[in-house]
Structures are given as C-alpha cells and as structure tokens.
Amino acid sequence: PCLNEEKSLPACLQEVKTTCEKAGLHYEIVVADNLSTDNSAEVARRFGARVQTVAKRGYGSCVQGGLSAAKGDILVFGDADGSYPFSEIPNLIAPIVQDKADLVLGNRLNHKLHKGAMPFLNRYFGTPALSAALRWLHHIPVYDCNGGLRALRKSAWQKLDLRQPGMEYASEMLIETAKQKLRYQEVNIGLRPADANHHPHLRRWRDGWRHLKMIVKGKF
Q1: CA torsion sign, 175 to 181 to 182 to 188?
Q2: Fewest CB within 10 angstroms: 16, 110, 120, 208, which?
Q3: CB 8 within 8 A of CB 195
Q4: Assessment of whether the complete model's pTM goes beyond 0.85
Q5: 66 CB contacts (<8 Å, ≥6 apart)?
Q6: Cβ distance 107 to 187 under 8 Å?
C-alpha cells in the first residue's frame, strides 16, 4: 500500500528485491497506489514493480486492491514508509511454507523495536488494549493487532470477507481469520522510525475508536 511515498519507496523496494533474491524466492512486487500526487508510481515502475491503482481512499481499500492484483500463492504486505524490515520476509512466510499457519503477523512489540519507532501511547496503551480485546472477544492469540507487515495464503485471504476501507481493516482481518478458524501465528520483527519525509496517515484517536468499534461489532 502506498500514498505519496516517493522518498521512502526506493529503499523499501530494494530491500524486498535483495531479500527475496538472496532467499531464492520466486516473487513479484505489487505497489498499490492510492492516487498518490507525487512520483510514487514512477518510482515503483523503475524498480520493476507492477503498479495497481486503487481509486477508493483508505488503508483497507489500498491493501485489498494490492492483494487482489497479486498472483502469488503467498501474499505479503507492508507499509511503504520505510519503517518495516522487509528483510524479515523469509521468517514471516516460514510458518506458511511449513503448513503451520494461514496468516502470520509480524509482532513489533519486542526487543527488536528501534528507539523512536512507535509513539509511547501506541506502544504501551493503544495496541496492547485493542489486542487484549481481540483475544478476549474473538479468541485469537494476537498481541500486536496493528502490525502492518503480514503474510497469508492467497487461498485463506479469499475466504475472508474483508470490507473495511480504513485502518480498522487490520482488526477486521484478524476477526475474520478467527471466524473462519484459520491458523494464526506471530513472529517477532523489528520496527524502524519511518522515513523523515513520510507524512503519517494514522490518526490515533479516530482510528483507535474505529478499531474498537470493529472489534466489538464483529462479536455480535
């Protein structure tokens, strides 16, 4: 998913390419462009990525557009702001390749978290509280519900009826995974501060409230 990330996109795409080639993976890169007004699409094409334009605004819409366009049997998605370590792709897909999981989430809340990578309230209140609500109401062993680096089987994704256009899409994916009784795992990943040129799209209180409503509504 990408919205005006021309500055951070080159490093992200290079990390994906280097990692996948080193691991001997057969891969493609799809950049889901959410009507960027900068040169994100041109940058993506220069790195050999396929650009999928997504007209409907929102994180969920953008991810859905990218996953719909992807051709692989295993789908991996992560933000293009430079914060996520795409070098973790082999570790992220390993439980799927080993047939131990259908959805794998990169857990950022561990010793690999870089200083300044996540706001204090998000790290120690927002994400843990929402994750606890998901564990309690939906019985899925999630500890970093907002983690934005994820891998899943395409066949599993096709079973999920995901419709949320905004940031709450991240919680909806977990709720639907629990409802479909799909196998879920987390692996520890790092998190870096986003590129200095990145303009944050997350609105803490607005998006947190939307997540909470999604979690409660999804139970009933």
Answers
A1: positive
A2: 120
A3: yes
A4: yes
A5: 1, 30, 31, 32, 52, 54, 77
A6: yes
